[in-house]
Design goal:
By secondary structure, this protein is of the alpha/beta class. It is built from 18 helices and 18 strands. Bound molecules: flavin-adenine dinucleotide.
Length: about 500
């Protein structure tokens, strides 16, 4: 009874994707999830007692989930485009990027930068991303090819050089004159990744790549109903296919011969898998194998969730709050500000002006608000703060969290015409509806190593090692154990791709 074709360690969204694919082929599948709910970092939650708002508590936007996975598994998740791409305040003005209105965007660039030059470079840069997006994205759900085959597939020398060969900082300095414009492009290279524009290892380029290829367009859309709706759809698919899903089941140890020891309902149990699929981070898997992980990853962000009575006014009176918060609002994320914040954080200090980006889910999808919250005109606000590495929180997490939140709200207030605190809702008990999650909080809640949101730094989407050509990028040194989470090659983000690829590796092995 305790033998399975696959035992999946962790019930994050990728574990559910792998479970659904395998169970559909008649495989016996067991998913063991430590928490009381499935979904890992892709969940919705009523974070504030007495306030009927289901926030996407951790991840919030979807770009990387392929249509193919949704179709294969028969899941129906509506992804809604935001009206505005981004708004970046500067002084009493700002830069509005309205993807649906080229003239409006061009005029905004002209006002901010004083010429049309950076707008022309902007269009050239994003034309380049659209040339690589399709082929790279399609390749993520196929076996790995080597670097030169991948380069030939891109077939674009300029794009190859910009994305795969030279540090992004060089390109940004050469192509753009304006510090704010450079910074907006750079932010996509720094999400969840603690590095600089000039990192010779190109960690920033890899992060950028994953942020501009999603579904062949790079658009980041709002999952209607919140991230919980994505996980609910995947849970349904796995259950319908016949997978057994256990929550409150913490895996304690795994062995290369397929044995999985876990605690469930206060008792220890053992299950055997022809394959073990690790939805947990590679560093966690090493721990479960009794090994000592080398090169521990480090997360570097502060996530803040808020509910507001109303959207705040901005210093820039030319932009409406609905436009400013309708896309990604970049706060103090110019190129120089990002580099300064990195240096301060690398030196062990909370950045004096924390760069962060913000978006309002409820403007695009009010369905996450209960009826009374909707009638009252309330909104959700999601803030993702950059360059807040785990090392800043190691000594006194509670004290450092409070300090990081204070500094971050002050950074936000610097672009507002009224303090954000005046707009934040209160619970019936009078508490402010604001919660902050440091990397250490994410480690204890989700098991992310030092809070790394991608389980480890993102990797190139091709085989570095000739032995990996033709494989799925999920293999470990043990035949029976595969990665099926964000830490796989071509992992990271809400994509289901590592789950799909691990399932394909299992099916290939049994052909
Ligand atoms: C704050 C934050 C914001 C983000 N924003 C976005 C975003 O907007 N868009 C996007 O695409 N990506 C975003 N990401 C990244 C994305 O959410 C993750 O990369 C992705 O969800 C990882 O999914 P996964 O299934 O691979 O792993 P996880 O979601 O990490 O799931 C792993 C599961 O394993 C479980 N587990 C751990 N240890 C054990 C054990 N011993 N036994 C049993 N179970 C165990 C965990 O509880 C967890 O449920 C964000 C992440 C965070 C944290």
């Amino acid at each position: 009874m305790n033998s399975y074709d696959a035992v999946i360690v962790g019930g994050g969204h990728n574990g559910l994707v792998a479970a659904a694919y395998l169970a559909r082929t008649g495989r016996r599948v067991l998913v063991l999830e430590r928490r009381d709910e499935l979904g890992g970092a892709a969940v919705s939650f009523r974070a504030f007692p007495g306030v009927d708002v289901r926030l996407s508590r951790y991840s919030y936007l979807v770009s990387l989930l392929p249509e193919k996975i949704a179709t294969d598994l028969g899941i129906d998740v509506e992804l809604r485009q935001r009206n505005i791409s981004s708004y970046t305040p500067r002084g009493d003005g700002g830069l509005l990027v309205d993807t649906g209105n080229r003239e409006r965007t061009a005029a905004s660039f002209r006002r901010l930068t004083g010429s049309d030059r950076d707008f022309a470079s902007w269009e050239r840069f994003y034309d380049l991303t659209s040339r690589v997006a399709g082929p790279v994205f399609d390749s993520l759900t196929r076996p790995l090819v080597d670097r030169s085959t991948f380069e030939a597939m891109i077939a674009d020398a300029e794009a190859w050089s910009v994305f795969f060969e030279r540090p992004l900082g060089q390109t940004l300095r050469e192509w753009f004159t304006d510090d704010t414009v450079r910074g907006i492009v750079l932010t996509d290279a720094l999400i969840g990744t603690f590095t600089t524009a000039d990192d010779p290892d190109l960690t920033q380029n890899r992060c950028l790549l994953y942020h501009v290829i999603g579904r062949g367009t790079g658009a980041w859309d709002v999952p209607v109903g919140g991230m919980g709706a994505v996980t609910a759809a995947l849970t349904g698919a796995a259950q319908r296919a016949g997978a057994k899903l256990l929550t409150g089941a913490e895996v304690l140890a795994v062995s290369p011969d397929g044995e999985v020891r876990y605690r469930y309902a206060d008792n220890e149990h053992v299950a055997h898998g022809r394959h073990i699929l690790a939805n947990v981070a590679p560093a966690r898997l090493s721990g479960l194998l009794g090994e000592h992980p080398t090169g521990r990853p480090e997360g570097a962000q502060l996530k803040v969730n808020m509910v507001l009575d109303r959207l705040p006014r901005l210093r820039d009176t030319a932009v409406s709050p609905a436009d400013a918060f309708g896309g990604t609002l970049h706060v103090n994320e110019s190129f120089d500000q990002l580099q300064t914040a990195y240096s301060q954080a690398a030196g062990g200090r909370i950045p004096t002006v924390p760069p962060c980006e913000i978006y309002c889910h409820s403007l695009t999808d009010p369905s996450i608000l209960g009826p009374s919250e909707r009638d009252a005109g309330r909104h959700t606000l999601t803030l993702f703060g950059l360059h807040m590495p785990a090392r800043l929180f190691n000594d006194h997490n509670d004290i450092a969290r409070a300090a990081a939140l204070r500094a971050t709200l002050a950074s936000l207030n610097s672009v507002l015409d009224e303090p954000i605190e005046d707009c934040i809702s209160r619970t019936p008990d009078g508490a402010l509806c604001v919660e902050a999650k440091t990397p250490l909080d994410l480690e204890s809640e989700l098991g992310l190593p030092a809070g790394h949101i991608f389980h480890r730094d993102l990797q190139w989407p091709f085989a570095d090692d000739p032995d990996d050509v033709g494989r799925w990028g999920v293999e470990t040194e043990y035949d029976r154990i595969l990665l099926c989470g964000a830490g796989a090659r071509r992992g990271g983000g809400v994509s289901g791709i590592p789950g799909h690829n691990a399932a394909m590796a299992v099916l290939d092995a049994s052909d």
